[in-house]
Specification:
seven-stranded parallel sheet; 12 helices; six-stranded parallel sheet; single chain; about 325 residues; alpha/beta
Length: about 325
């Protein structure tokens, strides 16, 4: 499909708020480089990016889309392909990029070790709140390139030293009211964190794990889940791997199909764990932060926040995993 055909097809499918976000983004980029587009999780940032990419390619521009995780790279490539955009890859041994390709989807970790980046006119940075030294240096060097960051949480300290303007999309509440995101119910059962210190702006992870990874608290998680969400597909966010495994063990002991996933599993194992969860063979999937960004399973009906946090970004990212809409889904239950 030609870039012009992709543009026409997408213009017919984008929601009104997405069209407005695209128009606002073009206006911001017209005022200079280094802009961030803020949109809630589930608002279709990848879809909006694809529309902007297709338009740029139709104008003979070359585009690079940057991701910071391998799982997001493959997911983005697949989503772009469904929309008619074929991109080459820069990612370790999987690299198939050829000089001059119109669209390249790249891992920032791989590019950090490259001597020369692809020559492009537009760079779109996914999860732009994650500051990386190599990216900041390249942005300072490539002043003639347009940079667009995508994020639901532009709250990282120092973000304004690199990015010059935030383009505000609709809020979570706006999208819920318009029917594009799921409504929610929330229950909070705070643990005693009086002895947990703060380290680099959030709870000290080691002390936090000791405070919450107890038989009583993991038992309460299972008890409250049974009371409020026993019939729902559920994601759990834990403090560390041991905590996540302890929570999964409690669910399994109760006869509930639950699994833990972390970055140390090999590619095939990760695929099968996630596939079982998508298909409903596994009801509860627990991780630490691996699934907090970019993970998309629309029929998740419960999110368990087993990890107390002072980070607004992390909180929003985790809650957002349950706010997508799905057929038959009335709302999402958040157990905090």
């Amino acid at each position: 499909m030609s870039p012009l055909a992709v543009v026409k097809q997408m213009q017919e499918k984008v929601y009104p708020f997405q069209n407005q976000a695209i128009r606002d983004t073009y206006q911001a980029l017209g005022r200079g480089n280094n802009k961030i587009l803020k949109l809630p999780t589930g608002a279709g940032k990848t879809y909006i990016a694809a529309a902007i990419i297709a338009h740029a390619i139709s104008k003979q521009r070359k585009v690079m889309f940057l991701v910071d995780r391998l799982s997001l790279l493959e997911q983005t490539k697949d989503e772009f392909a469904k929309l008619g955009l074929r991109g080459s890859i820069i990612q370790g041994d999987n690299t198939d990029y050829q000089y001059g390709d119109d669209l390249v989807i790249a891992s920032i970790q791989t590019l950090e070790n490259w001597s020369g980046w692809p020559e492009v006119n537009l760079v779109i940075v996914d999860e732009a709140h994650d500051q990386r030294k190599a990216l900041a240096e390249k942005m300072a060097e490539w002043t003639g390139v347009k940079w667009l960051g995508l994020t639901a949480t532009p709250y990282t300290t120092g973000l304004g030293l690199t990015w010059t303007e935030v383009v505000e999309g609709p809020s979570v509440r706006d999208l819920i009211d318009m029917g594009y995101l799921s409504d929610f119910q929330a229950w909070g059962i705070p643990p005693d964190l009086g002895k947990v210190h703060t380290k680099r702006g959030d709870f000290d992870q080691k002390e936090l794990a000791e405070a919450v990874n107890t038989t009583e608290i993991t038992g309460n998680i299972l008890k409250h889940w049974r009371e409020h969400a026993a019939d729902r597909k559920t994601m759990v966010f834990a403090v560390d791997i041991a905590h996540s495994k302890a929570i999964v063990a409690r669910f399994c002991e109760a006869g509930i199909k639950a699994e833990h996933i972390d970055c140390y599993a090999d590619g095939q194992e990760k695929f099968h764990i996630i596939d079982r969860f998508r298909r409903g063979e596994t009801q509860v999937l627990s991780s630490v932060t691996m699934l907090a960004k970019g993970f998309d399973v629309k029929d998740v009906g419960c999110v368990i926040l087993a990890r107390p946090t002072k980070s607004l970004s992390l909180y929003i990212q985790q809650v957002g995993r349950g706010l997508r809409t799905a057929e038959g889904k009335q709302d999402c239950i958040i157990l905090d």
